[in-house]
Amino acid sequence: MSTSPFPSPDIITFGESMGLLTARDTRGLEYAATLDKTFGGAESNLAIGVARLGHTSGWFGRLGNDPIGNMILKAIRGEGVDVSRAKLSDQEPTGLMIRENASGKASVHYYRKLSAASAITPDDLDPEYIAGAKILHVTGITAAISESGLATVEAAIHIAKQAGVKVSFDPNLRLKLWSADQARPVLLRLAEQADYFLPGLDEMKLLYNEESDQKVLERLAAMNAVCIVKGGPDLTYVLADGTLTEVPYFKADQVLDTVGAGDGFCAGFLAGLLKGYTPQEATRLGNLTGSMVIQAVGDWEALPTWAQVEAKLNNVVHVER
């Protein structure tokens, strides 16, 4: 356990958070007159989601000591996430992504090469901080952005395993960062070290080079981890203790923005584990939080609070008077 006078958060995660500019104009970025400014990052999205669901979370990473980096750090802190281990760099800039929706086709342009986040190293880890948590959550994005990023993920997992901290791993395969062939050995190796493995079904088809849903599930069932497989036919698969359970989705009243749904799911699932739920019960909570995220616009802005989740579960209708 940490000897720090302040206890570690329940869940700790780290990775790259980037400034996010979104073109409002449906004619596309080239002709857009204005851009909306916010930020996004799979790991910080998750940390915010966990905090909103009533548990303590910590996020760290490297940001540029620039206006975008300072905006991101203040916003994450403002959501109740511990950012005490985050660092601002005077040498590298904060990464940037620009999103557009031109003629109904959504696309994202990344400006993250040589970003502050990609310069993270194992020296940026606080072993006592990680050892004091209940769950360490890592993603394949951090492993993909640089060799030192991968080394940092591996070092953090080692610290967690030595301390008896559970490891949650979302492969978050990003083909703009590396090819499936490059990612395959790395992500599968990291998955073998996880206690909770949270892939998408399509991701695993690429990583296993397998088209059959059944064969993918059979290979996952052979892993030691509890596997939560997103993206089934209106359901999420749970592989735990040799048993396959199908947990149905919650129907969304409207779908406005699917970005952030996976992070919302993972936040709900991990929060469920902290509440003492079984993996199946935690998956049901994850399905609900994921469905709530896609009904509003934004990477993290629509992540629900625990009060909103309870109201949904209790079917409470809010009426403005």
UniProtKB/TrEMBL annotation:
> What is the species listed in this Swiss-Prot or TrEMBL entry?
Paenibacillus barcinonensis
Give one GO term, molecular function aspect. kinase activity
This protein's name: 2-dehydro-3-deoxygluconokinase
Name the UniProt key words of this record, in alphabetical order.
Kinase, Transferase
The record's comment on protein family reads: Belongs to the carbohydrate kinase PfkB family.
A Pfam family? PfkB
Give the PANTHER family listed for this entry: 2-DEHYDRO-3-DEOXYGLUCONOKINASE_2-DEHYDRO-3-DEOXYGALACTONOKINASE, SUGAR KINASE
The residue ranges of the Carbohydrate kinase PfkB domain are 10-305
